[in-house]
């Protein structure tokens, strides 16, 4: 997904939200928090997973971790 497509989505579906574009790398939660001057728990991270034949996106706080057996996903009725 390109930056332009994200900006177009927000312009159409959430015009009151202005995406933040940073020049520096924000590949990690720590880098994003430092660049934005916030706590790591205030960063939302996205994990793309393949579960069986399905693909899902998980958005969670930057300080959260998935269990090794992905048991966190069971609360969302994802059967592994």
Automatic annotation (TrEMBL):
InterPro entries reported for this sequence: YbaK/aa-tRNA-synt-asso_dom_sf, YbaK/aa-tRNA-synth-assoc-dom
Residue ranges crossing the lipid bilayer per the database entry: none
Domain of life, source organism: Bacteria
GO MF entries: aminoacyl-tRNA deacylase activity
A Pfam family the protein falls into: tRNA_edit
Domain YbaK/aminoacyl-tRNA synthetase-associated: 25-67
Protein name in UniProt: YbaK/aminoacyl-tRNA synthetase-associated domain-containing protein
Species in which this protein is naturally found: Acetobacter pasteurianus NBRC 3188
